[in-house]
Amino acid sequence: MIIFCLRQTTPSRHLLSPVLGDINTGSRYREVYEALDVRPGVDVPCTLLFNIDETHTDMSSNLCLDPVTFTLGIFKRNLRNQPRAWRTLGYIPNQAQHGTKALNKAIDFQAMVSVII
Asked: What phi, psi does 84 have (nearest 5°)?
C-alpha cells in the first residue's frame, strides 16, 4: 500500500476519526497518516492499491501472465469492485517455463515487479 497526499484548496470532509472505514482502518494506514501530518480540510490522503493475480492465456495453462494492476483508495468500495476502476501497469511472464530454482524465480519476480512499479 502506498499513501501520498494531494493538496486541495477546498475544505474536505475527511477528518481523522476512530473509524475511517474500508482500507483506511488499518494500523499501517494510521501510522502513515500521522507521519504525513495530514491537515484536515487541506490534505486528502490517497492510497494506491496494487493487485497481482495470475491469468491463463491458453487452454492447457502453459502460458500464464501476472498482470500488475492498481486503483486509488479514494474511490468508494463499490467502484473499486468494478473492473473499470483498475488500470494495468504491466505484465509479468510465467516463471515456471524457465526451469530455474525457486529462489531465482522469486528474485526475478521481485525484479520485474520493481521495474513495473
From this structure: -65, -15
